[in-house]
Amino acid sequence: MDLSGGGGRGRRNTGMALGLLAATALAALSMLAAPVFDARLLDAQFEFNRQYFPQPVANDVVLVGIDEAFLDTVDEPLSLSHRYLAEFLGAASDAGATVIGLDLVLPEKRFDTLVSVRNPELDFHRTLLTGLLRTLPKTKLVLAKVWDFQRGHYRDIQIDYAAVLASQQEPQALASALFCSDDDTRVRRYPDPGWNCLPDRSPHTLSSEIAAAMGVRSEWRGLINYQIGAEFHYLPLGEVLQLARDGNTERLRSIFDKRAVLLGTVQDDTDLVNLPVALAGWRPGVKRQPGVLAHAQAVRSMLNQGMVQPVSPGLQGLMALLGALFWFHPAVARKLLLAAMLSVALLAGSALWLQSGWWAAPGAALLAMWAAALSRSAWQAWRNFREKQRLRRSFSGYVSPHVMQQIMSGDLDAGRRGVKTEVCVLFSDIRNFTAMSERMEAEQVVSLLNRYFARITAMVHRHGGTVDKFIGDGMMAFFGAPNPLPSPEKAGLEAARDMLAELAELNRELEQEGWPPLAMGIGLHSGPAVIGYIGSSDRHEYTAIGDTVNVASRLEGMCKQFGYPVICSDAVAQRVGLPDFLLPQGEHPLKGHSAVAIYGWNPELGDYGAARHATDAPVQE
């Protein structure tokens, strides 16, 4: 039985199941969060389509407004404007209006006890009743009714008015003027019977009955189409009454003939509602507008393209689930680019579809897609960070900090070819350590070497060097790669100086512990070397090879011969400006190499800027 791939398949299946669970959860959360986002997006698309893709309407509503100017010219308050309503009804009816809608509630009482000072013979009740009776034979009437929350029913109107209006069989003369607002108080949806905001769940509204009188009847549902038609400009009620008093029937007929007429208040502080777009031409840019405009736009929608129909929640859920599948896309940059492109496509597509009367709310899909893309990207980034931290902890003892940094950043990888670079190579070795270690236990040897290397490698790293390898009690390092340095040679000499200072500190500790002191030799040479990964695909290391490395190794072996703890080549001395503390020792042949001019240095006797010392410096054993 071959079980070699079972574990991998199991992990993949588990990862797929967890991914599907995460995608489903993101889709569900997006469906919950989407309505607020979709509402604002719908408003923006209504405004965008109105501005850039205007859709004129063939059958519009004539809006007659009761404004401040009219109320300033009359003696009676709005609730007692019976005679003016009667005059308006007669004027619009005589001019051929098909239906007159009043976004006004008729009074509950007759007001028989009220007398007009200017016209004592005026009977408020009889005047309005006569106007209703005179209008109904020629023109359909639809009047608003409102819900009385205290009594739990629609507010009654005076019985005589109700009896007259009841004679109109079709359309229903009294219809609800209630709106259903969203959570942000904006009126977007038509208040169909399925909404709990209509107390009696009646299918009859002020706008639906006006449309029915115009011959358009349906079970209206959906969103009021705020993208069609131009801004409303009302005809002042006072102007209509003046035209009628002047007998200008031709002008009135040109306005009202075969039209739907809607009368309501257009004052700046009365009966205001929040709309998705600014419809009032006299209040540009203001979305809190007279409620009569919402009725007028609803009638516009019914008489022209109909209500905007939102797609089903099931389709929105499917779109959200598809968007959440972005969790599975592995490439972060490509995934985010694709998400951006799909976002533009979804927004453009929903705006275009909205023009044809459908609202494919993209909020759930967009939120799910971006939540999946960003959360997966964040998760991958966290995993990469954790992996880098693990690698750093695992390999920090095997490579120098600069090499580790280059590996973590991706600048170094095993597949890259070696590069020839100018470096300064340093070799160090403990003098006579082999003989010393023969008198020590193995654990003591390892402990001593670890203490020694911990101190001197820190000095190499302090000056930007790279520790290449440890060779028994010896060490190879180089300066100038992978991180470039202004002067690799100066960094190498300073590291050698500090290495010897650290050795002196370690010797003081060893002396207190009863151990003999250690002596060290350091060789430095500068020149080109090939830097890169050397080895097989299974086992390789980041190292330097070339003649420069060989020469540095040979120079380290000459420290004891010349009695200096540091021996460097002429190449190093020349590149640091031949300071006085580097003492020339002449040219000397090296094993397997031509003669090289060398310099000796004992940091205890001189440093940068110090005077030249005699060549008989004490030898470190």
Automatic annotation (TrEMBL):
InterPro entries in the record: A/G_cyclase (IPR001054), Adenylyl/Guanylyl_Cyclase_3/4 (IPR050697), CHASE2 (IPR007890), Nucleotide_cyclase (IPR029787)
SUPFAM superfamilies attached to this UniProt entry: Nucleotide cyclase (SSF55073)
Organism: Pseudoduganella rivuli
Keyword Hydrolase applies: no
Membrane spanning residue stretches: 311-329, 336-354, 360-382
UniProt KW keywords: Membrane, Transmembrane, Transmembrane helix
GO biological process, one term: intracellular signal transduction
Positions of the Guanylate cyclase domain: 424-556
A GO term for molecular function: adenylate cyclase activity
Gene3D superfamilies from the UniProt entry: Nucleotide cyclase
CDD domains in alphabetical order: CHD (cd07302)
Protein name: CHASE2 domain-containing protein
